[in-house]
């Protein structure tokens, strides 16, 4: 039997299509418990590779005979070894190219929809980490929002659809992943926009995103209206694009809301967060499709792989938007929070330009699941 | 930084997972029980994996020190020492030693574990005198002093206590169970 190689893109397709897949994860237990590849119809078995060095006989009866089996490890080497051993034992087997390292960096571009005045909205799903970036395209120009550090993916995608990136925006100073915004702006000559209240310590030049700023792209003018919506960070800004989409950053997610504590200001920002969610967002058209900067669990994906829902649906279904009592709200967003993201302080420093870690270090800083929501 | 002694040094630098562990496992087969191996690796993931592997195989993970880009992992081959019967009759438990340490400034406490074990974690007043070197080092000690002997689980210290008594030391006390259950103050590698 030959060993097959599966790419992160292949696995992403299986998630979008809700296919079955059996994942034999051979990383150590604590890494596996921290984060893993999840799909609606994926099943898992975790056996560290170092327990299989003497042979795989002990796990053969735990592996299914009627579905695809994918061996996964941190960087590929150990999964390739285990896949070889299983193949010699007579199984059809694949391993994940580049391991979890590649998985955490894979971006899947999906089209969210067309803009009324011509143009398109694309979402880049960082499936392994839950980050969502956006590209608004109109008449040969593109604006990029909350881009991750895999800058080539965005630049190449823009090239492939014949668009020039002219504006790069971040909704806030990210604490869970390293922004690619500044680099992309440098490489493409685009303008980089940041909310000034989040950018007080940055070491580079940027254009301040302020209330009611309009960023216009394309000759047919797609307007990106920025509006100040503090809560997750003091500078958090939301965008309404083409009167159709609400890019909510880390303020509002599909099944949850943002946490206000990652800069150490939970108590101070609770009322800002509530004001944003319960007043500012309430004043918007509830027909807007909310496009957040993250998803938390795989069941937030729509059937086409996108993440997004109408604002009115979220007002009806999202628990975080339906807490009448202010004290209860305060408690929810300040108490019993999930652990803070891995290396979030260093990530903030990097996004401010105060640190310039090497790529390997950046990867290490971002390891682990996304934890920007309150629960 | 203290120099840590190992019986074997394994070079796994530049190797990616799974090779550092594959090589460590192989090298471990050639070690005697109780011996210490230093594994030099550059793969960042090797620390968590070596630790987890040691736990699953019963070897003792002593610790890791970073030397520039190189991670030096120290492991001690499992010895099965927990099952041996103790023969030296004078013993105190950990709590009794802890009390004694509080009142006796001049206590003589010998730590007979390997120097690498001692280096990563030991009682501040303990003197390192690995069991294997005891014969040669015991001249430094006074035969009439009260001498406490400690190891990880009380077995090596039992052997050491027997040996000292045999050589004419009159006041030797074994500490049981020893460092594996020690909850008092210690000095660690990075202190």
Automatic annotation (TrEMBL), chain B:
Alphabetical list of SMART domains matching this protein: RHOD (SM00450)
InterPro entries for the chain: GlpE_sulfurtransferase (IPR050229), Rhodanese-like_dom (IPR001763), Rhodanese-like_dom_sf (IPR036873), TusA-like (IPR001455), TusA-like_sf (IPR036868)
Cleaved signal peptide residues: none
Domain of life: Bacteria
SUPFAM superfamilies per record: Rhodanese/Cell cycle control phosphatase, SirA-like
Rhodanese domain residues: 103-191
Pfam families, A to Z: Rhodanese, TusA
Coiled-coil annotated residue ranges, if any: none
Name of the featured protein: Sulfurtransferase TusA family protein
